[in-house]
Amino acid sequence: MADQPQDNAVIEDLKERILAALETVIDPELGIDIVNLGLVYGLNLDENGLCTIDMTLTTMGCPLTDVLTDSIHQAMGKIPEVNEVKVNLVWYPAWDTSKMSRYARIALGIR
């Protein structure tokens, strides 16, 4: 049990690095990254290095799905602990502007 705080610190560091990598994935239409847009709903990294990312899109049928997915795979390739990436597109809860960070709302002029 004495190792638990250190394990938690390692997990938090890895989560921060994964989120930082995902912040490099820019939605080409809006010019804001997918994390600040609130499109990333969840992520998990298992013991085998499989990183599963649950995310949504601003609109169903978004023509940029493949572009975003490819960018996510490239970004995750920079994290040594990630061996494989699986992107799950989810539609619930539906995305709306309330999921955006303050930064994204300011950048897009949304109050």
Automatic annotation (TrEMBL):
PANTHER family (alphabetical): FE-S PROTEIN MATURATION AUXILIARY FACTOR YITW
Native species: Latilactobacillus curvatus
Matching Pfam families: FeS_assembly_P (PF01883)
Domain MIP18 family-like: 15-87
Protein name: Aromatic ring hydroxylating protein
